[in-house]
Amino acid sequence: QVQLVESGGGLVQPGGSLRLSCASSGKIFAGSTLAWYRQAPGKERELVARITPGGSTTYADSVKGRFTISRDNAKNTMYLGMNGLKPDDTDVYYCYVGNYDRWGQGTQVTVSS
Fold first, then answer.
1. What's the Cα-to-Cα distance from 63 to each of 25, 33, 69, 88, 101, rounded to whole Å?
2. Which residues of the chain have pLDDT under 50?
């Protein structure tokens, strides 16, 4: 079964940057819409960013201008670049492959001084 493995989370100070990665064990990225979601304890999972097979992107209003989603189909990897991080960005971040309805295990991002 294809698995998604995320990395790059951690603790960062407000205003700092992180880059999340999501690698697939199989070739499922090409032709799929890819997305990053995040979820805080007791809250629903929310869409952070989405990228279509053609490269069109969509962002939540709260992260526009600060976060960048990208994909590398040849490497079966997707990324989320995060700049200007705020304490409100503290969440568990999940990658998602739409065509296969497949989720990553989640990676914790904590923004705190």
1. 28, 19, 11, 10, 24
2. none
